[in-house]
Amino acid sequence: MTGTRVPLAGVIGHPVAHSKSPRLHGYWLRTLGLPGHYVPLDVDPADLEQVLRALPKAGFVGANVTIPHKEAAFALAKDASETAARLGAANTLIFQPDGSVYADNTDGYGFITNLRQSAPDWDPASGPAAVFGAGGASRAVIDALLQAGVPELRLTNRTADRANALAAQFGPRVSVIDWQHADRAAEEATTLVNTTSLGMEGQPPFTLSLAGAAANALATDIVYAPLDTPFLQEARRNGARTVDGLGMLLHQAVPGFRAWFGKQPEVTPALRDAVLAS
Ligand code: ATR
């Protein structure tokens, strides 16, 4: 290393062409006037280990990792944050001076920070949370809600086995509600989260009832295309406040950018517009 290299970072996925991360980090590099580049890296799972060994030698200071690499990247890391270790998955990698990989997971941080910034008076301890979906994104959301002090969390998923397996990782605050009775998960809930792909462009809509939710509940969706999803619309029909999912994507990117490029970036309306313009 000469110390004069322009720092490089990227997002490792497969596929990765649709990722908004290059636009997001590119916006921060440009507006903060920092040297650096952030690129999409389409990496076959069979090549991940080799790529992670090579990237630091080519001037990369770190990377984001997305589907299907989050668990494998964590397993290949030499060191990890507590959160990544708890989740067994990484979304942010920092390459250390000796070329080894430090793994972090900022998905839950992004999720919670988005809610706290968009709804400052939201109190996670004020009542039960209902989480729809038990896929990859759900685990980070559940972990973050429990860390934030949610007293009780009802998890419901079309495939019961997946919900049961996920709940078993978390202990007694998490219970599973059968998908046939999913509306019961929402009863008196003060926090409502959709982590299923229902409502995403090209996917079937979310059609469950959220009628039992507490008055003035807070609802959020990890789907952000479209921004205003059927889940958020149903929540609003029942008096909930809603926060769209784009902010989670923007906030989860902050710690990585700061570690790689040395400056704390901000999540602003202009950033949202820039990312949505893609
Ligand atoms: P991600 O990693 O983004 O969470 P995933 O692991 O494929 O993606 O999970 C997608 C989630 O959406 C799952 O909870 C899935 O339910 P299953 O576990 O039963 O597959 C849920 N999902 C997708 N399509 C669905 C549908 N038509 N009805 C109900 N749930 C659906």
* Spatial separation of the terminal alpha carbons: 35 Å
Q: Any idea what the CATH superfamily of the largest domain is called?
A: NAD(P)-binding Rossmann-like Domain
Q: Can you list the strand order of the major beta sheet?
A: 2-1-3-5-6-4
Total helices: the number is 11
Ligand inventory: 2'-monophosphoadenosine-5'-diphosphate
**What count of domains describes the coordinates?**
2
> How many strand elements?
12
Q: What is the global morphology? A: globular
The percent of residues in helical segments reads 25-40%
CATH overall fold name of the largest domain? Rossmann fold
CATH class category label of the largest domain? Alpha Beta
Reading the helices and strands in chain order gives EHEHEHEHEEHEHEHEEEHEHHH
The share of residues in extended strands comes to 15-25%
Provide the gyration radius in Å: 19 Å
CATH-derived architecture of the largest domain: 3-Layer(aba) Sandwich
Structure, briefly:
This protein has 278 residues and is an alpha/beta fold. It has helices at 21-32, 48-54, 70-76, 82-87, 107-118, 136-147, 160-168, 230-237, 246-252, 254-261, 269-276, and strands at 8-13, 37-42, 60-65, 79-80, 92-95, 101-104, 129-132, 153-157, 174-178, 191-194, 218-221, 241-243. It starts with 7 loop residues before the first strand and ends with a helix.
